Backbone:
């Protein structure tokens, strides 16, 4: 009987510590500034904009950006981070499919990219 009481006490302490860790993690993630960034983005887009258009810092919308994918290649992955979007293409090396391109999401311009070169030096 005494062993059961000790086990229950230990489990209670572990549960309380576990809940404290979860609450601490949630509060630190909420206070790291992600909510203020979202508010700033809403303020930028909520100006005199036309619904469905993105604005650069001058307030002018940019046209549709065409991203060319060579025949036989495919879009393998996209990642969005701090005003830039990264596209990773996959496919045959002989068709120059193995590449990554980086675009600015505010202006729609291509920032740069990387392409795997299979030529031997």
Residues:
């Amino acid at each position: 009987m005494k062993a059961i009481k000790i086990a229950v006490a230990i489990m209670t302490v572990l549960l309380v510590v576990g809940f404290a860790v979860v609450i601490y993690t949630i509060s630190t993630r909420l206070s790291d500034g992600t909510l203020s960034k979202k508010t700033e983005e809403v303020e930028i887009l909520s100006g005199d904009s036309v619904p469905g258009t993105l604005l650069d810092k001058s307030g002018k919308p940019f046209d549709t950006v065409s991203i060319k994918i060579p025949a036989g290649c495919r879009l393998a992955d996209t990642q969005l981070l701090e005003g830039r979007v990264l596209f990773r293409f996959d496919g045959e090396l002989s068709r120059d499919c193995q590449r990554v391109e980086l675009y600015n999401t505010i202006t729609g311009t291509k920032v740069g990219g990387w392409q795997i070169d299979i030529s031997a030096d």
Observations:
- The first strand starts at residue 74 and ends at 81.
- The chain has a mean pLDDT of 77.
